[in-house]
């Protein structure tokens, strides 16, 4: 899989399924704004939201 500037979630999840990658951590614009991240069980497609990183967006701003 090549890196794309604006990858599609469906393409990424299909890649995880093909490569037998069991978990995906999802951090998009909305997650950054809310200070959360989502953990998805790829085979079952069950998503859990984690609030452990409440300052996630400010941490990413420090990296810029």
TrEMBL record:
Residues 5-48 form the Anticodon-binding domain. It holds the Pfam family HGTP_anticodon. InterPro entries: Anticodon-bd, Anticodon-bd_dom_sf. It comes from the Eukaryota. This is HGTP_anticodon domain-containing protein. The lineage of its organism: Eukaryota, Metazoa, Ecdysozoa, Nematoda, Chromadorea.
């Amino acid at each position: 899989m090549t890196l794309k500037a604006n990858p599609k979630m469906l393409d990424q999840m299909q890649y995880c399924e093909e490569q037998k990658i069991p978990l995906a951590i999802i951090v998009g614009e909305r997650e950054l704004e809310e200070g959360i991240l989502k953990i998805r069980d790829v085979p079952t497609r069950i998503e859990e939201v984690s609030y452990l990183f409440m300052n996630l967006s400010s941490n990413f701003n420090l990296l810029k």
